Structures are given as C-alpha cells and as structure tokens.
Amino acid sequence: MLFFFFSSPNAILRLRFNHFATECSWDHMYVYDGDSIYAPLIAVFSGLIVPEVRGNETVPEVVTTSGYALLHFFSDAAYNLTGFNIFYSINSCPNNCSDHGKCTTSVSIPSRVYCECDKYWKGEACDIPYCKANCGSPDHGYCDLTGEKLCVCNDSWQGPDCSLNVPSTESYWILPNVKPFSPSVGRASHKAVLHGKFMWVIGGYTFNYSSFQMVLNYNLESSIWNVVPVSKGPLQRYGHTLALYQEDIYMYGGKIETNNGNVTDELWIFNIHSQTWSIRTPAVLVHGQQYAVEGHSAHIVELDSRDVVMIIIFGYSAIYGYTSIVQEYYIRSNSWLVPETKGAIVQGGYGHTSVYDELTKSVYVHGGYKALPGNKYGLVDDLYKYEVNTRTWTILKESGFARYLHSAVLINGAMLIFGGNTHNDTSLSNGAKCFSADFLAYDIACDEWKILPKPNLHRDVNRFGHTAVVSNGSMYIFGGFSSVLLNDILVYKPPNCEAFRDEELCKNARPGIRCMWNKKHCESWESGNVNNILRAKCPKKTIAADDRCYRYADCASCTANTNGCQWCDDKKCISANSNCSMSVKNYTKCHVRNEQICNKLTSCKSCSLHLNCQWDQRQQECQALPAHLCGEGWSHIGDACLRINSSRESYDNAKLYCYNLSGNLASLTTSKEVEFVLDEIQKYTLQKISPWVGLRKINISYWGWDDMSPFTNTTLQWLPGEPNDSGFCAYLERAEVAGLKANPCTAMADGLVCEKPVVSPNQNARPCKKPCSLRTTCSNCTSNGMECMWCSSTKRCVDSNAYIISFPYGQCLEWQTATCSPQNCSGLRTCGQCLEQPGCGWCNDPSNTGKGQCLEGSSRGPMKLVSMHSNEMALDASLCPKEKNYEWSFIQCPACQCNGHSTCINSNVCDQCKNLTTGKQCETCMPGYYGDPTNGGQCTACTCSGHANICHMQTGKCFCTTKGIKGDQCQLCDSENRYLGNPLRGTCYYSLLIDYQFTFSLLQEDDRHHTAINFIANPEQSNKNLDISINASNNFNLNITWSIGSTAGTVSGEEIPVVSKANIKEYRDSFSCEKFNFRSNPNITFYVYVSNFSWPIKIQIAFSQHNTIMDLVQFFVTFFSCFLSLLLVAAVVWKIKQTCWASRRREQLMRERQQMASRPFASVDVALEVGAEQTDFLRGPLEGAPKPIAIEPCSGNKAAVLTVFLCLPRGSSGVPPPGQSALPAASFLGFLGADAVNCAKLFEMMWKFCAADICLLCSWFPF
C-alpha cells in the first residue's frame, strides 16, 4: 500500500500519526523524505504506539524537507489491528508549538515558520519545560535565561529543578543538551564503552550509510559529540560487541549490512591513543571452531589463572542458529577456545544483555530472543549467572518481563534493565509494545527483582537497540530505535549511599541500589568484597512450588538454580519441599544425558557438530541418538562406531582384531572422528598410545583409507618428514602435535582404532541442507517449504525462525515463502503488477494501448544506478522520453490497459482484442491458444495431437480429452495403467479382460477435461458368443467397431462399425461367434468408444463369454453334492454337540457328589423297641428330656434347625403300609437359649399329632 504526499519543492511536510496500531515486527509503515523508496528513509513505524502519559505522544512527528513524502505500508495479515490515522501539514510549526507558544512567519524566509515559546518553555516545538519552580531560587539555585535556559544549582543541591540534596536518597532522570545535535549521530544496535570521561560509540544500524560515522565519542562532562576520522578500518556493522582492555577496544562479530547482511567472525582492535584499527587473526583454534555471531555480548576479564580473556556469550549464527555456547578469546596468546561448561544447561539466543560483577566474578545474562520448546521461538525473561573461573551456569530468578535488545548496567549491587522490545504476541495482540521504557532492577545479593518508576520526563523515551554505560555512579543511555533512529542521551542518577545517615536505612536502601554500613557511615556496594553477599540483609526466600520446577527438564538445570528444586526419581523436577524417594539436589551429582544437550540445538549444522545428536528433517529438531546403536565398548561418533584398543599388535593382527568385532581399521575422514580419537588417546596417561589406523599405501605414490576414500592430508596430517619410504601402513603418533607416521606393516604399534558402520534408527535423519543464509535466489530459498523466507528488497534468504532478528528495524520491505516475484522491475509485465511494487513505475508507450515498460523510478520519472559500485539512484528521463510521447506513471496506471492488442473506447474500454487474445484487458489468449499476451506478448496455437481443444494458457500443456492419453502434447499412452495404442496416429485404449467387470471413476479434478474413453477386447473362446454390458452415471455416446487387422485403431478404414448410439446411459448386446466367425478370425478385436460425457462420471463395462443353454445334469450333480455335503456337516456338528453336552453333564454330577460327600456328619444312637406295643411305648415313662438328633444353628446362635425322628403308624403287624416309611426324619426351625422350648413341651405339642396316628421319637442324649 502506497501513500504519496507532495507540495512545492523543498517545502516542509509534517506527518503525524494520531493513532497507530499494527502487528509489531511484521507490519511496517516506511516514511521516505522524497518521492520514491530510493529517497532517504526517515522513519519505520510498527506495533502498538500509544501515549504513555497524558499529553506525551509516543508517535513522533515526522518531517520531510524535500517537498515530498512517500509512505509504504506492508502487512502479513497474521492478525488485524485498528491500523493508523495520518495527519499532515505543509510549512506549519512543529506540533502546533505544543500549545506553549505561537507560530510566527520567518522574516528572512517568508515560506518558513517557527515557534515563539512562552516563558519557561523551549525547544523547536516549545515542548521542553525549564526552570520549574524557578529552580528554588535563591536558596537552591537560579534560572539561566540567557544561555541554555536551565537551572543552575548551588553546590548542595541537584536535579533538573534543584530540589534534591547532594547527596540524595532519591533518583532522577535528565535529558542533557548535547552539542552538536546532529541527526546523523542517531543509530541502533551499536555498542559503547567508557574510557575516562569519554563514551566511545562504534558501529550501529542507520537508515543511510552514506554519511554514517563509524566511530564517535561523547564527552560526559561537556556533553559534546566528536566524530573520530578513521581512514582505514572495518565495514559498518551492527549487532556486534565491544570490550575495553587498557587502551584498546575489541570489536567482535556483528552483521555487515552493506555486505548482503553477512554475519562476520572478524576481531578488530581500535587503539584509542592512535585512533587506528587493526584486525586480529587467531593463531590457534582449540576444541572446535570460531563462531560468527550477532546479538551476543562480551566482557574482558582477568581469571584467577592471570589469563586475560574476552568472553563471548551466546548470539545468533546464520549457519548454526541460536547458539548456547561460550567462546573465549585469550588476548595474550591470540587463541580461541570453546570450553565445556558445567551447571545448568542454558538456552542461548539473540539480543540479550549481560553485566560482569567483579565481586562475584560472574556474568549475569538477561532476556533475549531464543528458541523455545516445541520448535517455537520468542522472547524470554530468563536470568543466568556464569562464573567465569569455574565455567558454571546457574539459573536465577526470572524477571517476569520478557524482552530483547534492551540495556543493562551494574550500579551499587543492582543490575538495572531499561527499555527493549517486549512484543511477544503471535496470533493475537495482548498489548505488548515494540518499544518499551520499562525500568527494572535485579538485586544480586538477594536474587530478587523490583520494578522501578519509568522516566518522568517531558516526552516518552521508549526504545530498543540502545546502549548504556556507567560513569561516576550514573547511567548514560544513548540512541536506539523508536520508529525513528534516536540520537539523544538519557542520564539516570540513582540514590547515593552516602545520603543514608542511619544504619537501618543504609541496609534497607533499595530498590535499584544496595548499600552497606561500614562503621559509622554508609558506603556503596562496589567498595566491599564478596563476603558482603553473605551478610546481605534479604527477605526470607520461599521454596518454589512444584509447578515452578516442572519447567526444568534436566537434572542439572533443576538443581543449578535458586528456586529451591530437586531432581526426583531421575525423571522430573519438583519442589525441594515435596517428598521424593530418590532425590538429587546438587548439579555435580547429575548424569548428563545426550537428550539434554541435543534438545538445546536449534539448527541442523549445530546439531551435526555433536557426536551423539542427529537432526530430524521432518520435525525440524535435534534429537539424541540411542546409546545402544554401537554396543558395549564402542563409541557412537557421527555415522560410525569407533573403538580404541591399547594392545600392542602388528597391522595385520590389528586388522584381524577389528574384523572379529565386525569392523575394520578406522578410516578417519571426518573432523568428528579425528577429534574424538585425539581426545581419547590423551586420556591414556600411564601408557603411551600410538594406534594403527586404516590408512595404507595403495601404490608408490598414493595413500588411501580402508573404506576406499582418498587421503587428503587435511583433517589428519602427516608429521614432518613423513611418509617415509619404508612404511606402507600408518599409525597415529601422539607427539606435541598429533599426526600420522608411516611404518612397515609387520612392525608393532601401541594400540589400534576400529570402526564399524551404524544404521540410524531415525529414517528422517538426512544430511543437512544448505543453510538459508547461503541461498542466493528466491527459488532456491523457497524450495523447501516454510524453512526459509526470501526478502525481495534486500535479496537475502533467512531462516524462518530468525526473520524478526534478521530485520529488527524493518529492513525488509516485502518477503515471500512460496511464490517468487521478479527481482527487478523489468520483470513485471503489466502496469498493475508494476505499481504494486513500491520502487517501480510504468513507462507507457505512445500507442496508448497499455503497452509499456516497468522501470525503477519515482513520481518524477525513471531512475538508474549512478554507478556499478554504488546503490545510489538518480533520475534519468531518457529511459522514458516525454518528448517522444512516452508517459510515466507512478501512482495510477493509464486508463487504457489493453496490453497492446486493442485501442480503447471511452478511454478505458478495450474496443476489440486482436492477435488471438481475449479478456477485459486482452490479457489472456483465446481458447486453443497459449502464451503471455500481456504487454504485447504473442499467443501460440495449442499442439495437442488432435486430442485436446484447449491447453494451459501460460505453459501450453494440453488438457487431453481422452482418458488414458497423457503428455504435454497428448503424445503418450498411459501404459502404466494398461492403456495401449499410439495417440500420434490414433488413440489409446484400455485392454479389457473377458468375464471381468471394470469400473472407471472419473471423479478427480484431474479428470475434469476428459470427455471420452476407449476400450478393446479380444474373445478368448471361439465357440461362445461375446456379451457386452456397459452403464454409466451420465449420458454418453457409444460406438463399437471390430477388426481383424493389426493396424486397426491407427489406420482409417480398418475398423468395421457395429453399434452407434447417442445420449444413452446403458447398453447390452451379444456378438455371435458364428456371425463374426471367431474360429476363423482368432485375432478379431472389438473397439468400444465412449464419448461426449460430462464430468464427473462413473462407468462400468464388462465383456463375457458363457453357454446359452443350461446343462441340467451338471446343475443337479452340483446341487445334490452341495446338499449332501451340507447335511453331512450338520450331522457331524450335531454329534459333536451331543458329546460335549454329555461330558458337561457328567462333570456336573461329579461336582454335586463331591459337594454332598464333603458335608459334616456324625452318628447317633436311637432306642427303638420294635416288639413293644406302640401305645405302651408312647405312654411309658421317659428317662430324661427328649432331644433332637441334629441341630444346625443359624447366624447369631439365637435360632437353629432341629431334626427329629418321627414314628409313623405301622398297623397291627408292626410293619408300615407298602410305599411308606416307618421312621422318617423331620426338621423345623426353633429358638435357642432362654427362649428355647424344652423337649417335654415339644413332646406335648407333638402329642397332639399322635391323635392323627403320628408319633414323635427323640433321642435320649442329654446336652
């Protein structure tokens, strides 16, 4: 989207955004002081920009002095906000004098106006107050009305209004007046160091590098800027680091914007005394390589070992992604080292800040933009501590406010954080702003964060990409970015410890400051020693809850932090207060796993540098290789398994040893393998190891490895004087510098190195693709999906996860991830496409038919490069000469846009498209033709071999109408799918099998253009008729022919028509074997042509041959055979069922009998006088009370089932009647205990039954 404002030349245009709300870092509004994007860029707006304080406007007023203003807006539409509101004025006073003055016309230049400010207001827009409360005059100071119009305080007072004591217990901010105040000083992502009273500023990003000064210094006492002229030196860069050592400033890394945005690993040294540059090339690289990074931090420290080291922390590498490493540069030995660190496993990133504390000998690192779990990226609020002598990482309490490109300084034991980019929204805006003025303080002694008041100044000071230094206990902030490049100085004066007269107040002096009481006065924290931290008065620290510890996924990070966590059961991190069966609370007890290291690596290249990691291309993450891939005793190194043995062997015996282990002598062809072997043989301290390797002489002048790869003498080299003529085999000699030495193969060597291949378990692991930063064209950049993004304006390819940090200041005007637009304006063929690009204009030719040329240009005309070695553009009217009736368009296209194929009627309607074109603007070819007719292009007839009427309008690829014909020109048959024939001389047929039904579903989008399909079939039996059946879901035309010639289907006249039907849905027929004489014509072929159907359609077709008269004998034989077989199967099933049922019944009876046999039983004696009279027996005396013969107590023992014998009437003979029992047993339910009925009463009760000839007989056993 393009906006263009213009007035008279050199008029002053003032633009003001009263409202601006877009997606931060992705949507940008570019403002140019001119009529093209080749004019000076003066502002880039992005994000949520709202007033911080009522009356203070964050959105600055943008001023152009050329009389033009070009605004270009680009949005990716990830999510929508309310947009922006633009107001503009011409030759007006700035900001209407802020309502603190009046606008007056200049006497010398009538077209110019200026503000006459009211009393106690100053500045170009009368927006700067001065001498508040008259500076407390006369006791505190006085107001200087003649000079700089500010308060001049007495010796015992300070502050912008002289209201604070000297020293003071309160802090304040000031905006000093700097001299000279030049806009060219403004920059971002620069770096600054303090040397004496000067702040040295080097590098940085700016909109225009033509007048950019690489080196500046600022006098903190006089507030004067000085430009340091340097004849030779490094190219301009930003995102680098500076570190001061004695009289030298060490500059490392950074991005060189003028060199295609390359990230460099250059180390430059600027000598302050001589003001000259020198580049330092490292003498030695130890343990790995040197990393080219940007967005890192650096400090020069003196270790306990007396070594002076520059420590490089984290950063982003265009090759290796977000790095989590520490690099060490030893100044005296000019050597680099990438050391192994201990403690927590931290995640590095871009744009963090760090400070070095001399008391704790530690670097404190906060914030940054880095990789997050789940292949995500964003801002963090992490705080790490790195102990420089022990190389140990500790995780401290996070701030709670994520940010990057902020500043940090250390004052009085507190790390002060200011500003930064705090936007962390992805799909929905939560109000996070691009530019922040947040002010935070971290207390090193107490591990706690505090929020400090934001600067209370007359205007907002939101920014990111600035720098800060400390001088005399004050913080000086310079530059940065807040839609415009800032060139101001902010000064923060913290409270002074000497102002606290009481011991308690001194110890409690915070936030933002820490003091200590020394005898009878209060001193600053820096004047003490490390023991002060132990004596610091801090609030009691609470142990973190489980949910706070859960985020640590490894043992070391869980235990090397200050949150109070423990590693439990070797699988999770929980609070130290939680119960745990197997707990680890010290990181030195942790076992480091490969997963913990690999998961922190964010690119394929960095992943490949680690021995036990591999990159998953599908998941786009680094994964740990399983430890069991090689087996016990082997080490997994890259794609190979290595094993070192210390036995003394000859070459042949060493080779046999490796062969018995399913391997060979090692071919050390990669740096990983060489590094591993060299490290391992260094561990043999008691025995010298000089092992055989798989390198031997192939012929008189050629050495090769066992895996047949050539020896290149690069990764592993010969020792001086080697190879000698007597040696045909090589071993690795451990000298001061390890190298190869030749030896006779029969000689002995101390040790051997075996190698065997390893098969990766991850099928998605493949060699690394070329990094995005090394791809130079849009097509190469976007060929791998969303991995890379192409910026067309800078012609750079960047990693998708690093787009924001690659262009932190909106340097990319537009980007692509899939389709590529032409890289130059000349590649755009229509006026509409041309004017969509902000740097292009359209030169309409004199025919006024829409034909023309797209050129780089401005509103005034086309432009071209001044020279091949410069990016500066200049007007060149000869490219579109107006005197030859050429017309230049920059904002709106000419009305007639017929692409050169028609004139216009009514100025914008194409009269009649010619040259085989059609369309509203004659922009497409007619059906049956293809090409690009835009801008006078030609149309060409489709070449489709007679099998298509239309083709693709741009490529000419034919849309074949017959199913089974393929090829760009319909010249091939789809033989893979059983289609036969020759479309160049006929057509293609699908070969049908007899007695099978085929279904053809033409439902896909690829079948849209098909209107016909052809089949062929050959009878298989000469004595049977050939039946055909065809039906479809839509109407179709049908033609059937037959032929006995071999050239049928390709030569006209060979086929004889049989059937011709139109507009039918189904058809059945039979071709007589006698009529068509199948026996005499064994090669007879039937051709079926189905045509004129509409898409989509489903077609079913079948050819079959079978007898017409049914064979009754065969039918009945088959029927009864099936019936008898079924009957036999039923009988067998019934017999099996009966057998199973009988078996189950026997088993059930057996269980019942076992149950009955397991019941309890006992014997009882019964007195029975068989011969006595029953009346005498019943009425005779009974001895004792009658008892039951059995008692079965119930639950609770209050009731029971009692069993007695009954004596039934037996008649006169004493024998019971037939079929009856004389002595049955009877049971009944009765009570026990006190409620029980004794046997006598029971006998009386039962006596009543005797009247019914029933007698009761009880046993006479007492209880």
Automatic annotation (TrEMBL):
Laminin EGF-like domain ranges (all copies): 896-941
Pfam families: Beta-prop_ATRN-LZTR1, EGF_LMN_ATRN, GBD_ATRN, PSI
Domain CUB: 1-91
Disulfide bonds: 93-103, 117-126, 913-922, 925-939
A molecular function GO annotation: carbohydrate binding
Mode of membrane association: Single-pass membrane protein
Domain C-type lectin, residue spans: 637-755
Record key words, sorted: Disulfide bond, EGF-like domain, Glycoprotein, Kelch repeat, Laminin EGF-like domain, Lectin, Membrane, Repeat, Signal, Transmembrane, Transmembrane helix
Transmembrane feature ranges: 1112-1136
Domain called EGF-like: residue spans: 89-127
Localization terms from the record: Membrane
GO cellular component: Golgi apparatus; membrane
Lineage top rank: taxon: Eukaryota
PANTHER family per UniProt: ATTRACTIN-LIKE PROTEIN 1, LEUCINE-ZIPPER-LIKE TRANSCRIPTIONAL REGULATOR 1
Name of the featured protein: Attractin like 1
